[in-house]
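Continuing from the previous page...

OK, I double-checked the sequence for 17928_t:CDS:1 against my notes and this is the correct one:
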Amino acid sequence: MQHLSSPLDKFLQIVLECFLFKDFEADLLEPASETLVALICSRKEYYNHLVQTFISNQNSPELRTRLHDAFATLSSGVPHTLPETLLRRRDVSGFREILFRFLMNVRGFLRVK
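Thanks. Re-ran it with the corrected sequence; updated structure tokens here:
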């Protein structure tokens, strides 16, 4: 599994950047949220690194605080293990709802700089 770390990290970064900074079809939220939660579960340390990078790249202390709080809420919706996510769709749908609220909150102030 170690040989997959680098490609999975890159994929996680691309998916997060797309969610935060790119236009995407709302119909893709469900499959994309399933992908994102699986990537976060499997690459938790790198996800935390990316979150800290996104936060530290903000110029304003207020924006850093808002982004920190938003990511904390998003992260609270991530199951602790990947098999639990795959076996219980309810967890994924709960994450999808949290992700939707996260995106509604964060995309506006991140895309307006």
